[in-house]
Amino acid sequence: MPSPPVVVLDNGGSTIKAGVVVPNSGDDVDNLESHGVTLKPRTIVNAVIRSKGDKKTYFGHELEQCRDFSSLHYRLPFERGFLTDWDAQKAVWDGLFSQLLKVEPADHSLLITEPYFNLPNIQDVYDQFVFEEYEFQSYLRCAPAALLPFGSLFGSGLPAPECMLIVDSGFSFTHIVPLMNGKVLWKSVRRLDVGGKLMTNHLKELVSFRQWNMMDETHIVNDVKEKCCYVTAHFGADLETCRKDPKRNEIVQEYVLPNFADNRPGRVKAPIEVLAEGDQVLVMNNERFAVPELLFRPTDIGLSQSGISRTIAEAISTLPQDVQGLFWANIGLVGGNVKFPGFRQRLADELRSLAPIQYEVHIHESSDPIVESWLAGAAFARREPSVFSQHVVTRAEYQEGGSNACRRKFPGWMARAGSNFNAGEQNADSLAEVHGDAIIATTTGRRAKADARMKASTRGKARAKQGG
C-alpha cells in the first residue's frame, strides 16, 4: 500500500510554513510538479488579526487580502513560546488546510514541529487535535532542529555531520541545540529569552518615546526592524557616529511610513528621494543596531542572561571533551533573526575569541533560514518514507492507546534530559533511532573515526607549537 501524502507543518509562533509532500517523489523538479508538490512552502501569519481600518477579521493566510495594516490587533495562538490558544490555532489551521493547501486531512499524514521543551499536557492537546479534530491518518511531532540532519544546511548533497550545533533564533526565544548522530542532546540545549517579538516590542518603545507613538503598530514596526536594523561589529564606534550631525552620519536612515489611503507600503527613503506632500518619516539612528544588539547583550534591557555567543560556548562546554571540536566546526543558523545583516560575521568573530585555539569555528547559514526546517522535514518525508512510517503514530494506534501511544513514539526531552552522554553508545553505521525530537543520521562510523583522528592530530600539533 503506497504511503499517503504528507502535510509538512513548521508551526511557529509568528508564521506557519506549510506544504504537501508525496513520498518517493524524488528530487526531480518536473516529477515534483507533476505530483502537485511545491519546492517551497507557503508561509502565513500564525494569528487571528483584527483590522481597525476596515473592521474585518483575518485568519492566518487571509491577511494577504488586507489593505490597511494600521493598528492591527493580533490574537496569537502562542504565548511565551508555547501553544496555549487552541481556538485561535484551529481557526488558522482550518483555513490553511481547506483553502490554502486544499487537503483532506483524513487522506494525509502529518509532520509537525513543536516548541523546544514542550510541556506534556500541551503535547497531549496536539495529539487530540491531530487525531480527533482533523482525523489525520498518522503523524510525527518533533522539534525543528531535529529535522535539519535531512536538509542541506551543511551542504547540498552531502551527508550531515555526526555532530552539529543549531542556533535557532525565532519569534519567542533563541535556542542553542546540539545534535549527535541525529539526536538532540537535551541536557546541553540552552535557551536565550530574546526573540523577534521582544526586539519588535523594544523598537516600538524606543520610537514611541523618541518620535511617533507606534505602540499599536506592530505590523509596521516589525517591517521597520526587518528593513532597517543590522548587527554592528563595533558598537561603541557606531554609537559615536550616531552623535554626529545627520548630514554627516552614514548610519541614519529614514523610513517612510506607509500611506494606506493611497495603498503605498512603507519603505526606506533613498538618499536623493524627494518626499511627497503628507509623507511621514521615521528617523532610524542608533535604533538600527541597538535593537539586534539584545541578542549579544541581553543585559541592555535588564535580562540576567549571557549573550548568544557565550551561551553557545557554554552549551558546547557541557558536551564530551573529545567531540567538542566537531560542534565548534559545525554550527548552523536558522530562524528569522539570523537574517540581520552582520549577524553571522559578529557571531563568528565572538565565537573565535571564545573557542579553544586548537578548534576550527565554522558557521553554516541557509539562503532562507526561515524555511530551512520545513525544507529539511519535506526532504525527510519525501526521500525516507519507510523510515518516516516506522516512527509515526497511526490513528488506529491513537484510538487504542490515546496519548500514551504518542508518548511511547515521541518520548521527548523529559525522557532524555537526564541521560548521560556516551558517544560509544551511538552506532553511526546504521540509521539512528528517532527518540521523539531527533531523527536520524546516515553517515558512517568510519568517517566519524577519521574525523576524530584528524581533530586529535590538529590538537597535538597546536600543543606542540605552543610548547615550542
Automatic annotation (TrEMBL):
Keyword Cytoplasm applies: yes
Keywords: Cytoplasm
Gene3D superfamilies to which the protein is assigned, alphabetical: 3.30.420.40, Actin, Chain A, domain 2, Actin, Chain A, domain 4
Major location category of this protein: cytoplasm
Any single GO CC term annotated in Swiss-Prot or TrEMBL for this entry: nucleus
Annotated region described as Disordered, given as residue ranges: 449-468
Transmembrane segments: none
Heme listed as a keyword: no
Xref: Pfam families: Actin
Subcellular localization: Cytoplasm
Compositional bias ranges of the Basic residues kind: 456-468
Entry's family note: Belongs to the actin family. ARP6 subfamily.
Function: Component of the SWR1 complex which mediates the ATP-dependent exchange of histone H2A for the H2A variant HZT1 leading to transcriptional regulation of selected genes by chromatin remodeling. Involved in chromosome stability.
Subunit field text: Component of the SWR1 chromatin remodeling complex.
Designated name of the protein: Actin-like protein ARP6
Source species of the chain: Schizopora paradoxa
